[in-house]
Each structure stands twice: as structure tokens, then as C-alpha cells.
Amino acid sequence: MDFEDENNQAIKKCKALLKKATLGSELVFIKSNYEFVSRIILNLEMQAMSLNKSVGLKEEFETGIKKVNGIEKLIVPMQENDSEVIFYVTQEDLFDVLYDIHLAIGHGGRDRMIKELNKKYKNITQKHIKSFLNICEGCQQTVNFTTFK
Ligand SMILES: [Zn+2]
After folding, report:
1. Which of residues 53, 71, 88 is at a domain's end?
2. Could you tell me the CA-to-CA distances from 26 to 18, 22, 41, 123, 126 in Å, in that order?
């Protein structure tokens, strides 16, 4: 396999991962996959820049890179009027993200969580939120408290 083939293979894999990431009932973005996709996108962006042309990354991948505190993050490409950046989340960070938002809205339920999460993250689905809510001790206690009142 020459370099060109290898490159094409990598791009194909990258596309497949991104497609799966946004369809998902499961998170395909374990950290290594996420880093793989970031690397490919970054390479393509740099290639495009050095050739001084757009390779249609936005259209082709619907994904871009944004540096946050020196770390490259996968984002949804921004339109002119967008004010909020929408990120992809990794499996490793999912729990923290769900937990923080859930507490920030005072143990808010599924609908409020979806509303908040959609503003910031591309690849979190109702299923993730549902299974998270099933394990929140704070919520379980509230339910019990109300039940036995
Ligand atoms: Zn809760």
C-alpha cells in the first residue's frame, strides 16, 4: 500500500466514524477514535491551507477543529450567525458532561437536559441521557422522598 492509498483509507475511516458518531445509539468516540479523526481533519485543513484552497471540508465532513486552551477539539463548523460552538464529546468525558449539566439545572429531567446539551454537543442522544438519569442518586432520592411523604 502506498502513501496515497493509506491516506485514502484513513479518510474513509474518518468519515465512517463521524457518520456513526452523529447517528449513534452508542458513542463511537472513545478517545483514540476521537484523536484519530482530529488528526485527519487537521491534516486536511493544513493541506488545504498550504494549497491555498478550501477542500470543501465543511461540506464533506461537517466537522472542523477549534483550539481550546491549546487543545484541538472537534467541532461542528460554524455558520456566520452562530454564537455557540458545538463540540463532539468522547466516551471518556460523557459522564462528566452529563453530570455537570444535570446538576447545573438542578437535577433537571430529560427534556431540559436535551435542550441544554443540544446547544453544546453534537453527539449526545436521548439514550445517553436516559441511562444517566437512571443512575443519578440525587434523583432517586427525590423520587423516594416524594413517594413516602
Ligand atoms: Zn439527578
Report:
1. 88
2. 13, 10, 22, 9, 11
pLDDT digits (tens, 9 = 90+) for 70-129: 999 999 888 778 788 999 999 999 999 999 999 999 999 999 999 999 999 999 988 899
Q: Which domain holds residue 105?
A: 92-149
In terms of domains, do 61 and 100 share one? Answer: no
Do 139 and 77 reside in the same domain of the chain?
Answer: no
**What is the average per-residue pLDDT within 123-137?**
91
**How far, in Å, from the CA of 101 to the mean position of ligand 1?**
10
The closest alpha carbon to 122, from 94, 83, 92, belongs to: 94
Answer with the one of 66, 88, 110 that is the final residue of a domain. Answer: 88
Spacing, Cα 25 to ligand 1 middle (Å): 22
Count of structural domains within the chain: 2
**pTM for the full model?**
0.80
Vertex 4, ends 41 and 64: CA angle to 5°? 10
Distance 138 CA to ligand 1 centre (A): 5
Distance between Cα 21 and ligand 1 center (Å): 26
CB of 62 closer than 8 Å to CB of 18: yes
